[in-house]
Amino acid sequence: MPPAKLQAKTPDTRLIIAASEQDANLYWATQFLAPDPIIYIQHRRKKYLILNDLEADRGRKEASVDHVLRFSELEREIGRRNGRPRGYLEVVAHFLKKKGVKRVAVPYDFPLAYGLSLKQKKIQPHVMPDPFYPERLIKTRKEKAAIKKTLSHVSASIQAAYRVLRESKVKKNRIYWHNKVLTSEILKGVINGHLMENNCLGKHTIVAGGNQGVDPHCEGSGPLPANKPIIMDVFPKSMDSQYYGDMTRTVVKGQATDALRRQWQTVKVAQEHGIKMVRGGVDAKGIHQWIMNYFEAQGYHTGIKNGRMQGFFHGTGHGLGIDIHEAPRVSTVSQKLKPGNVITIEPGLYYSGVGGVRLEDVVYVTKGGRELLSRCPKILEIP
Amino acid sequence: MPPAKLQAKTPDTRLIIAASEQDANLYWATQFLAPDPIIYIQHRRKKYLILNDLEADRGRKEASVDHVLRFSELEREIGRRNGRPRGYLEVVAHFLKKKGVKRVAVPYDFPLAYGLSLKQKKIQPHVMPDPFYPERLIKTRKEKAAIKKTLSHVSASIQAAYRVLRESKVKKNRIYWHNKVLTSEILKGVINGHLMENNCLGKHTIVAGGNQGVDPHCEGSGPLPANKPIIMDVFPKSMDSQYYGDMTRTVVKGQATDALRRQWQTVKVAQEHGIKMVRGGVDAKGIHQWIMNYFEAQGYHTGIKNGRMQGFFHGTGHGLGIDIHEAPRVSTVSQKLKPGNVITIEPGLYYSGVGGVRLEDVVYVTKGGRELLSRCPKILEIP
Fold first, then answer.
1. B4-136: CATH number
2. What pLDDT digit, counting tens, does each position of A157-166 carry?
């Protein structure tokens, strides 16, 4: 019997049961998109997919794995019980036992019910920390290019919104485009439509004006105000590559007040300095801390005011890839940036009355610094 | 101490930790859309959300729960450890202990890592069968209307595709629209664009022609063939209501062969008979079985032929709601239909050479029968 220390090592078999459309680790490992849960096993450097009859032929064509097995064939090997189909875990346990596997590494979000069922079948699940594949956070040249491409569509969609605002007219603090009141919904339609033409899916695009923008996740609705900040946060997934882009710009149709102009400039300085601090080996927490301190020093305080959070109360940034939010985070938690990481830098300041301001770009971390992957003019006022 | 039987009862506290955008149970319970994991606790008929500072104010406005608590405030109650932020489970355990809770019901896909962590903290997770809220499968009048509305957009988008095919011309087995070769991508663009205008998101719309359609999940790509079946399977989620629609039509631009005409008619008869069999109290397995038998009796066999599955090798239907695939299934497994269920009926026949044929509609189950929620002409040939 091996010593306890060896026992505790990560098992050399990995198991994921999930819909790859919603599971970045699984899509990354297989390059196979499935809308319903599929079974993935990695055993001694070989990759296996166990698929139902509906998916097996497509899997053989599309998946980058070594073997595609039919669920129905494995089920036949063990036989049905009382004529009822076998469950996922019975088939999985059968396969693992054939290979002599007693312990499997599973992702942190492996379903609890499946974990308990494996244990019952004398196979120990070993929960791995997130992400299941840390390699996923170091982007290849191809992945970097995919993100950059999505970002180019994001930039073009924001500039399409700029054009709409430029063509619009202001009457009594409202904005009119083609003689119709311009709403968040219409401007979102322009942005999402442009994205869709490029096979990018803008699901919760934010176009929030005035006080709506003080809530960073408010998507925005109704007529957009003139002379008040409008936050546009655009983060679609490319249906071609599956990689996200994520950018934010804040503009005013008409004229900004002095208070807003100063708030916007403060965010811009913080964002650009934050980007310059990005470098391989740096602790991302330091970037977040610098921005928080800078805002405080400029007189922009954070805390609950009139019953709602105001100031700067979200992280400075996050990793970006097949997931919209992945490691590393740029926040209050220590996380060392590594060359190959792709992260956003997106500080913001939010105050009732003045409104919300956020600026966001995406950078690729290199050994000596960073490469800016998103390019789009930062404009405060659109006359 | 209570007897063992009582101990085994379902706990009266429920816990979900998930992103409600991807978790139908959580969205159903809270009506609050969040892109990142949030904490939901139901304790003695009261609903609680524990949200970070970024989401708390929006949660108070939008969520249909009794209490929205700030994660940061609960974290402050237990204090940081070595200055590091507390994890989700530490805060959850703190809250549950304050309420005197020792056992919590969790969904089957509750993350294994969280389940083990709860156990360590002396709180027993009790895995519930899927769906966590069986009430979710009995649609209210409002939910039925939401699905019907999404379906009306689906129907209009398919009819937009019919128009494109009608306007197109056939030359040498290719289809030309405005003098350009008509591809799957173009026709998907027409369908998805129409859906997007109505705030419905068509994510993996299928427009697959000829042999591509023999693989039921192939999305289709490249030039569409004339005189061969084109499967259009359209299943968007409404971004307004969050409810899905799902319909399939199979058409030919030009002329169908006799073999295809017979295959199409056989599927149509099977689908229409299947719909007529839907009624509250009926075992859905019987409907699937009837269709399989009918196909066999008509000479349409199912099995592996020339190395690929051919015939009818997927379920006859599935429940539809906030999830695209939910219970009850119409398949080889016994499942009793209940009044209020919303299900698809979508048999298909797939043979290399002839191509694939699938017809799909959505019905609402009533005590005495069914109500058809999807309406769209079934046409085989478009001249």
1. 3.40.350.10
2. 999 999 999 9
The ipTM assigned to this model is 0.84
Question: Structure pTM?
Answer: 0.88
Identify any residues that bridge with B209 across adjacent strands, giving them in sequence order.
Answer: B230
Q: What is the largest CA-CA distance in chain A?
A: 82
How close is the nearest chain B Cα to the Cα of A64, in Å? 16
Q: Which of B9, B6, B7, B47 is nearest to B29 (CA)?
A: B47
What is the crossing angle of helices B88-98 and B112-120, to 10°? 50
Query: Which residues face B208 on adjacent strands?
Result: B231
CB–CB contact A111 B113 (8 Å): no
d(CA A123, CA A184): 53
Sign of CA dihedral A320, A322, A327, A331: positive
- Whether the pLDDT of residue B3 is over 50: the answer is no
Query: Does the bond joining B107 to the residue before it have cis omega, within 30 degrees of 0?
Result: no
User: Do the chains contact at A114 and B112, CB–CB below 8 Å?
Assistant: yes
Residue of B nearest to A242 (CA): B203
Q: Closest Cα partner for A237 from A147, A354, A136, A337? A: A147
CB contact under 8 A, A333 and B85: yes
- Helices then strands, each counted (H, E), chain B: 10, 24
Coil vs helix vs strand at B7: helix
pLDDT tens for residues B280-296?
A: 999 999 999 999 999 99
Query: Is the CATH code 3.90.230.10 the one for domain B138-382?
Result: yes
Contacts B188 to A, Cβ<8 Å: none
Q: Domain spans of chain A?
A: 4-136, 138-382
Cα A202 to Cα A151: distance, rounded to the nearest angstrom: 12
Q: DSSP letters along B273-333, please?
A: HHHHH--TT-BHHHHHHHHHHHHHHTT---EEETTEEEB--S-SEEE-SSSSSEEEEESSS
Which of B34, B112, B196 faces A112 most closely, judged by CB atoms?
A: B112
First-residue to last-residue Cα distance in chain B: 77
